[in-house]
Amino acid sequence: MTSVGRSLRRVTPADSLSLMSRKHELDLSKIWMFSACSGAQLRTIRKAVEEVIVPAGRVLCEEGTVGREFFFVVDGTASVRRNGRRVTTLGPGKWFGELSLLDRQPRSASVVSETPMTLLVLEQRRFNGLLDEMPTLGRKLLVAMSQRLREADAKALN
């Protein structure tokens, strides 16, 4: 069970056909953390995610708490808040929580669903299983992190 609460509606077998078609449409290579992964690795990652449906007003992650999930937005919108102030809005195709899978540090912002949402969730345990199953994934994550750090350094110097 994810930390977003016990009242999440899990996808039922009747929903599985639409889930499968959506999973195949998702381009996880656009997410920086998975950008260096092969097609086969991306397919394995897609199988590890779980689809959940949340109502409007649900706190998906809370600033200052340790994160244990990564979220990919399929449908709906959520607001991102830092120190109580709205920072941005996330919609379909956006993601959040990826750093928590890597460093297990407290969340830097809170995210609250503004509308009912469909999310794909990758839990820490499944992520660790992927790293064990695909040792090259760890190396590829380091490459992606290095690229992201270089981009941040370049922005800071300008």
Description:
The protein has 158 residues and is an alpha+beta fold. The protein has helices at residues 16-25, 39-48, 98-103, 124-133, 135-157, and strands spanning 9-10, 50-54, 59-61, 69-75, 78-82, 85-90, 95-96, 110-113, 117-123. A hairpin with a 2-residue loop joins strand 5 (78-82) and strand 6 (85-90). It has 5 helices and 9 strands, in the order βααββββββαββαα. It is globular and about 40 Å long. The model is unreliable at 5-21 (pLDDT under 50). The strands form 2 sheets. It has a 5-stranded antiparallel sheet with strand order 1-2-9-4-7. The chain is 37% helix and 26% strand. Helix 4 packs across helix 5. The chain has a single domain, classed as Jelly Rolls (Sandwich), CATH 2.60.120.10.
Secondary structure topology:
Layout: E1 9-10, H1 16-25, H2 39-48, E2 50-54, E3 59-61, E4 69-75, E5 78-82, E6 85-90, E7 95-96, H3 98-103, E8 110-113, E9 117-123, H4 124-133, H5 135-157
Antiparallel strand pairs: 1-2, 2-9, 3-8, 4-7, 4-9, 5-6, 5-8
Helix pairs in contact: 4-5
Give a quick rundown of the structure.
With 158 residues, the protein is an alpha+beta fold. It has 5 helices and 9 strands; from the N terminus they run βααββββββαββαα. A hairpin with a 2-residue loop joins strand 5 and strand 6.
